[in-house]
Specification:
seven-stranded mixed β-sheet, Aminopeptidase, 225 residues
């Protein structure tokens, strides 16, 4: 049995997110990630707009997306950590994706998140590849990405992990499904900068944030959008 299939004895109820959860999801992502967007593998992803699973009572959130026959886990957060909520979300997502015929579940993390690396490796994920310097490049899209991770480890690199969901698939050396760059990354990056204004300014008006997201900042602010 794949470790991802093993349920925690006291797992919290897990349900799909609905329209009524939109405000909470955005607030939760801003609290945990500093913005609703995630800069990863040369792409800026609006995590608040993705399908999601929620651990009740609003104890955790997993956002994900389907890419072809595979899926990507974009964010996984549990509050508080260490009581089985993250595991329950991961197991529920794996069951859901497997029922939909998804072959693999992918994720990308930084080299500075050592506890998360241990968490995923113990739950059936395997290291697929390392991209040296990828986080340094991502900071041009999202400057708020930390410079130092756990235990004082400098954050520079991205790690791709893969968990095979389909028993008929044995090739864990496949290329990640996001290998082809997306054309809308610049628009998403501008949105990411605008979202960060909520914390650095701070600005609370959604209309002002939306207006800032249309400004071509890359023309006069140097590297990055």
């Amino acid at each position: 049995m794949n470790p991802i299939d093993q349920s925690a004895p006291s797992a919290p109820p897990i349900r799909p997110a609905g329209a009524a959860d939109a405000a909470w999801i955005s607030d939760f992502l801003r609290e945990r990630w500093g913005a609703i967007v995630v800069a990863v593998h040369a792409e800026v992803i609006d995590a608040a707009a993705l399908p999601a699973l929620i651990a009740e009572p609003q104890r955790g959130l997993a956002t994900y997306r389907r890419i072809g026959g595979d899926s990507e886990l974009v964010t996984l957060d549990a509050v508080p950590a260490g009581i089985g909520t993250g595991t329950a979300l991961l197991e529920a997502l794996a069951r859901r994706l497997r029922a939909e015929g998804c072959g693999r579940l992918w994720l990308t993390m930084t080299n500075g998140n050592l506890s998360a690396l241990r968490f995923y490796l113990r739950r059936g994920f395997r290291l697929n590849r390392v991209r040296p310097g990828a986080v340094d490049a991502a900071r041009k899209l999202k400057p708020s990405i930390p410079l130092v991770g756990e235990h004082g480890v400098p954050i520079h690199d991205e790690l791709d992990l893969c968990c095979v969901l389909d028993p008929g698939i044995s090739d864990v050396l496949a290329s990640p499904p996001w290998s082809e760059p997306r054309s809308d990354w610049l628009v998403a990056a501008r949105q990411g900068y605008a979202e960060e204004l909520r914390f650095t300014a701070p600005i609370r008006s959604a209309a002002v944030v939306k207006a800032f997201a249309t400004v071509p900042r890359e023309r006069f602010l140097g590297p990055g959008p």
